[in-house]
Amino acid sequence: MLLLGRMATEERHLSSSCGSFIKTEPSSPSSGIDAISHHSPSGSSDASGGYGIAMGGHPNGLDSPPMFNGTGIGGGSCRKRYDDCASAIMEDSPTKCEYMLNAIPKRLCLVCGDIASGYHYGVASCEACKAFFKRTIQGNIEYSCPATNECEITKRRRKSCQACRFMKCLKVGMLKEGVRLDRVRGGRQKYKRRLDSESSTYLSLQIPPPAKKPLTKIVSHLLVAEPEKIYAMPDPTMPESDIKALTTLCDLADRELVVIIGWAKHIPGFSNLSLGDQMSLLQSAWMEILILGIVYRSLPYEDKLVYAEDYIMDEEHSRLTGLLELYLAILQLVRRYKKLKVEKEEFVTLKALALANSDSMHIEDMDAVQKLQDLLHEALQDYELSQRNEEPRRAAQLLFLNK
Predict the structure, then answer these.
(1) Strand (E) or helix (H) holding 107
(2) What are residue 311's DSSP bridge partners?
């Protein structure tokens, strides 16, 4: 958490160095194209959050990235670029911004059967069971059952036996690792599932069997939708300096934003969301997606960050340009990806999940967004089952990568 908190600090430093880029959150997501230039941090609780790169200061660890408004170094066309991108999304959206996805059934807590508020520590659960599990792990509490360790745990009887309730939490797949991360501010675990028989059973209840048929196609579709290589094209006439680095990276972020929005439109189900929800998700997640791209491009290299195919920084270059802390933070994330040997199929799915699960307090149709999240989660799990059946926990490990 601390390392990614430093990453957020450096991103803020980079953005502020490019000019007065930080915008406050708009009062409404429906303010048209103008809203797309605003910063949209989430104030959502653990119940409504999503998978994403964890950085200090945000409910899921992310300090939502500042938007470039077109003033300052390298940002002359940023605002216009974003407006153009928003217009491009509009052109392909239904004229009435209808919600195209059907609402999914109400979720139930896998521990007690109460209404689930979201995914906590790996499974769908209610606030009461989430808090109980967290207290138990953080307090290292041991319980004993006065009966035979077979007490029924329901909404009405969940407080009758703490021992059996805790065993039920573990049985349905709650992850102790999630609570350890949750001790750090910003480490809450959201929309993650443990890949085991219980959660697989739950998924089968939520997603009709016919929906499972195209799941393997989703990853293939994401591979095809992956953007072409991007180039920074730094000015060769400028001497290496912090000014040149900031100019290059700001311009690169400007152009990558265009690419990200075009890519998002090709994620299965994304274009079916309302225009407002598309914009809200993009506002919240574009910096996460940008950083994930840097991480994946850097995997073949040793201690180097590939911001673009023609703009690669090592430690010395980062130090000279004032970006050492950012370099060190992202490099640690690169090492995590290397350790798990993340494949491209996994990367493209994680990147799509970063967009679908981004924390935005301005979602208009949460059921539609949730259905997109479920579809992508299931696609990742389906891929792992088919390709790495001997590693039943790999999907959960991948989802915890950025925390």
Answers:
(1) none
(2) 308
pTM of the model: 0.53
Report the pLDDT value the prediction gives residue 350, as an integer from 0 to 100: 94
Residues facing 115 on adjacent strands:
108
14 is written with which tokens? 């980079």
CA 351 to chain centre: 7
Instruction: Please state, in angstroms and rounded to a whole number, the distance separating the CA atoms of residues 229 and 393.
Output: 32
Cα dihedral sign, 228-86-361-76: positive
CATH topology of domain 217-228+238-400: Retinoid X Receptor (1.10.565)
What's domain 118-178's architecture? 2-Layer Sandwich (3.30)
User: Backbone phi, then psi, for 307, in 5-degree steps?
Assistant: -65, -35
* Residue reference for tokens 């189900």: 269
Q: Alpha-carbon Rg of the chain, whole angstroms? A: 22
Identify residue 200 by its one-letter amino acid code. Answer: S
Phi, psi of 341 (to 5 degrees): 55, 55
For 40-85, write each residue's pLDDT tens digit: 333 333 333 333 343 333 333 333 333 333 333 333 444 444 444 4
Q: Which pairs from 132-135 meet CB under 8 Å and 24+ separation?
A: 132/158, 132/162, 132/165, 132/166, 132/169, 133/166, 133/169, 133/174, 133/179, 134/179, 134/182
Nearest Cα to Cα of residue 215 among 311, 122, 349, 316 = 349
* Residue 237 buriedness (CB in 10 A; 0-12 / 13-18 / 19+): exposed
Residue ranges per structural domain of the chain:
118-178, 217-228+238-400
